[in-house]
Design brief:
mainly alpha, GPCR_Rhodpsn, Rhopdopsin 7-helix transmembrane proteins, 368 residues, 13 helices
């Protein structure tokens, strides 16, 4: 249950809402359908996201020390999404029991902390990954943010995780288990409720959405332009795919932040929005929050499974676990299927293909 939902409940109990008798839209009867929808959304994200991100971490983990900056960020994004996904069984049970929390105060605070930390860290590493990819394509001589040699990548990575933890603690310090009719896990500051809700909402908006979105969209637009002006780039699929990266990030997170900001406006001035509007906002807040987690499903597909290098590494990693005789046969079949048909390519054609690969903006192959 979010702080805004809790604030709404407190106001109703205190009888302070001016529109109690003026609401014509009643969505309480749809609550059961919302719980079913939320449970199914969480179940889908948990099942598919756990499989996808587990495969990504499994394949890329062995290369974490030698990986370039793009792949290093991809590993961190997958770890962040994976840690968020393992919390979903708690959320599914909470939704099923209509916001009743059964696992005590410790898990109430820990699950919230893990969720918010990965809420920020996933966006941070996506932004740095996009920036690293842009620089590797357009500024090859520019020093990498996550170089293979030295400790710089570990220091920067640790700094991003530490910043995510700091931002999460600002909210988590006010998260606690409250026992009214039933125990629930809520964020309720002891004093200055509105000020805290507004501060947390705007920190989240700036650090989790606006900042990363500005980097992701700007770098992707510049990469698309660079690919279009390159004389040896023939495939337009990769150019459009770059814009899909930006679109998916915005589609996942914009509805959540839009609803949150509108609720913050109501916290500041309860007379701006109508009663029916607020009913829709409070009803949809948990829905858009659950839909935002679809990035845990989309990220592995966009940044890993569409990449030829990742699929090749996935096959090689899987082959390592197949008996030797069968492995040789499967590798041979895969190499034969992957080989070019016809009379082959000469040195000039090979060089042209290499240029196309280097100039391409496709998936995570850039700089890998």
């Amino acid at each position: 249950m979010s702080g805004h939902d809790q604030n709404h409940s407190l106001d109703l109990l205190n009888g302070t809402l001016w529109y109690i008798s003026g609401c014509t839209l009643q969505l309480e009867t749809a609550g059961a359908y919302r719980r079913i929808a939320l449970f199914l959304i969480y179940l889908f994200i948990f099942t598919v996201g756990l499989l996808e991100n587990g495969l990504v971490v499994w394949v890329n983990w062995r290369r974490r020390h030698s990986a370039n900056g793009v792949l290093f960020c991809i590993i961190n994004v997958s770890l962040s999404d994976l840690m968020m996904i393992v919390l979903l069984p708690f959320f599914m049970m909470e939704v099923t029991l209509d916001k009743v929390w059964l696992w005590g105060r410790f898990l109430c605070k820990v699950t919230n902390l893990f969720y918010v930390v990965n809420f920020y860290s996933s966006s941070f590493f996506l932004a740095f990954m996009t920036l690293e990819r842009y620089l590797s394509l357009t500024r090859p001589s520019f020093p990498a943010f996550f170089p293979v040699v030295g400790r710089r990548r570990w220091v920067l990575s640790g700094g991003l995780w530490a910043l995510s933890l700091l931002l999460a603690l600002m909210e988590n310090v006010h998260v606690d288990l409250l026992d009214w009719e039933e125990p629930g896990c809520y964020m309720i500051p002891e004093t200055n409720h509105v000020e805290w809700y507004v501060a947390v909402a705007f920190l989240c908006l700036i650090f989790q959405f606006l900042g990363p979105a500005a980097v992701i969209i700007t770098c992707n637009v510049l990469m698309a332009r660079a690919a279009q002006t390159a004389p040896d780039v023939q495939g337009r699929r990769d150019v459009w795919l770059v814009h899909v990266y930006s679109l998916v990030f915005v589609v996942c997170w914009l509805p959540y932040h839009l609803v949150t900001i509108l609720l913050v406006i109501d916290d500041i001035d309860p007379y701006i929005l109508s009663c029916n509007t607020l009913e829709v906002l409070y009803f949809s807040h948990n829905v858009v929050q659950s839909l935002s987690m679809f990035h845990c499903v989309a990220n592995p597909v966009l940044y890993n499974f569409l990449s030829k290098s990742f699929r090749r590494n996935l096959i090689n990693t899987a082959v390592d676990y197949i008996p030797r005789a069968g492995a040789v046969a499967q590798v041979g079949a895969w190499v034969q299927a992957s080989a070019p048909t016809g009379r082959g390519t000469d040195a000039g054609e090979q060089q042209q293909q290499r240029k196309l690969s280097n100039a391409s903006t496709s998936q995570s192959d850039i700089g890998m």
